[in-house]
């Protein structure tokens, strides 16, 4: 197969972890005989520094023309500490999601047998956890208008808005995911307080009869926040709005034992995008110490979701599992054992794939 992949390394550790994913994707291409072309583009603080815009048109064009986007991370402390900054790297991320129509963010949480002891939660609670969030990504309070301050600057407001159409397309994807998995769908909302949540619940209830094989549960977001760490095995597929999904998926990522391990896919109307869920981790940038596995696993999701190539995807997750079992890992999970560099982990994975 021919594949054109846009590379958006972005900020912080983005470039180093993307480098490893590229090596791994190239190795998979070699092993399975695919012709893979990469086109790099700028995004985030890097793009602000270079052209004054965190998501330049040239970058958007490259994304639209590609079959998939591999994305590193966005964010820079120099903007975090300046609430008055006129352009922010995160605006680039939001604009990219909106312009590419990436309405569904697929964020899985699963455990690795060799790392279960690293989780802050007890083994019997988390062993075998395998759940996936579908976070709505282009609506809700992230984009709702009006937003801002009153004239005196003494009041600030954001608006949470959802249309039936936005809820329905995400919910349908949730039902379809559930059909391919353990057939349990949890609709996470705050329907006891919020009008938008009531529309979510109503919409999901209307669709449910079309998917009779899927059991649907409705649960308030505060309860999910609690049960997620008490008994994560209770969940299979969870659907939720943008802000709830942002918060809960960070919480869920800790279950696996390291945030450096969880990949994600953003799916929607045009080109699909794949990125690790950890951020730009600026303290580690340029040091060759960051964990590349979440990005490498995002590349595995790319083979699965963008190209439907399961053998290729599995060849990546298999070697990632092997690296964890054999302790070929970066310092965040090395625990007194040898800590490998980011690039060494990448090289090792390549050798296993080709070996
Ligand atoms: C994420 C991030 C972003 C979000 C930020 C960087 C805007 O936290 O991808 O989860 O809130 O969506
Ligand atoms: Mn987040």
Give the key terms:
355 residues; alpha/beta; ten-stranded mixed beta sheet; two-stranded antiparallel ribbon; 14 helices; globular; binds 3-isopropylmalic acid; binds manganese (II) ion
Short recap of the structure:
The protein has 355 residues and is an alpha/beta fold. It has helices at residues 14-32, 45-51, 57-65, 77-80, 89-99, 123-126, 164-180, 195-207, 221-230, 242-253, 293-305, 310-325, 331-334, 342-354; strands spanning 2-10, 35-40, 68-73, 104-110, 130-136, 148-149, 156-157, 184-189, 215-220, 237-240, 263-267, 272-276.
Characterize the structure shown.
The protein has 355 residues and is an alpha/beta fold. Helix content is 43%, strand content 18%. It has helices spanning 14-32, 45-51, 57-65, 77-80, 89-99, 123-126, 164-180, 195-207, 221-230, 242-253, 293-305, 310-325, 331-334, 342-354, and strands at residues 2-10, 35-40, 68-73, 104-110, 130-136, 148-149, 156-157, 184-189, 215-220, 237-240, 263-267, 272-276. The strands form two sheets. The chain has a ten-stranded mixed beta sheet, sandwiched between helices. A two-stranded antiparallel ribbon has the order 6-7. 47% of the residues are buried. The model has no long low-confidence stretch (mean pLDDT 96). The site of 3-isopropylmalic acid has 4 residues, from helix 5.
């Amino acid at each position: 197969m021919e594949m054109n992949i846009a590379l958006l390394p972005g900020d912080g550790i983005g470039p180093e972890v993307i480098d490893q994913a590229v090596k791994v994707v190239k190795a998979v291409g070699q092993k399975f005989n695919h012709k893979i072309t990469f086109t790099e583009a700028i995004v985030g603080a890097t793009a602000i520094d270079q052209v004054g815009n965190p998501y330049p048109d040239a970058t958007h064009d490259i994304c639209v023309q590609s079959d998939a986007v591999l994305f590193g991370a966005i964010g820079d402390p120099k903007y975090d500490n300046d609430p008055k900054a006129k352009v922010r790297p995160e605006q680039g991320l939001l604009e990219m999601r909106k312009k590419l129509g990436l309405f569904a963010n697929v964020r899985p949480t699963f455990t690795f047998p060799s790392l279960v002891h690293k989780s802050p939660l007890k083994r019997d609670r988390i062993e075998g956890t395998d759940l996936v969030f579908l976070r709505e990504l282009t609506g809700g309070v992230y984009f709702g208008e009006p937003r801002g301050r009153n004239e005196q600057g003494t009041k600030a407001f954001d608006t949470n808005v959802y249309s039936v159409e936005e809820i329905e397309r995400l919910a349908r994807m949730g039902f379809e995911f559930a059909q391919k998995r353990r057939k349990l769908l949890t609709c996470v909302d705050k329907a006891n307080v919020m009008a938008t949540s009531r529309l979510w619940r109503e919409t999901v209830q209307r669709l449910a009869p079309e998917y009779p094989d899927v059991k649907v549960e409705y649960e308030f977001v505060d309860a999910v926040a609690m049960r997620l760490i008490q008994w994560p095995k209770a969940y299979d597929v969870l659907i939720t709005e943008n802000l709830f999904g942002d918060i809960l998926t960070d919480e869920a990522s800790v279950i696996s034992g390291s945030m450096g391990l969880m990949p994600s896919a953003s799916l929607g109307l045009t080109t699909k995008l794949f990125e690790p869920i950890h951020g730009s981790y600026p303290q580690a940038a340029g040091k060759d110490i960051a964990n590349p596995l979440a990005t490498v696993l995002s590349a595995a999701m790319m083979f699965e979701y963008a190209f439907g190539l399961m053998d290729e995807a599995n060849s990546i997750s298999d070697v990632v599992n092997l690296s964890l079992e054999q302790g070929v890992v970066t310092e965040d999970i090395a625990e007194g054992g040898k800590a490998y560099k980011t690039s060494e982990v990448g090289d090792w994975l390549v050798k296993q794939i080709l070996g």
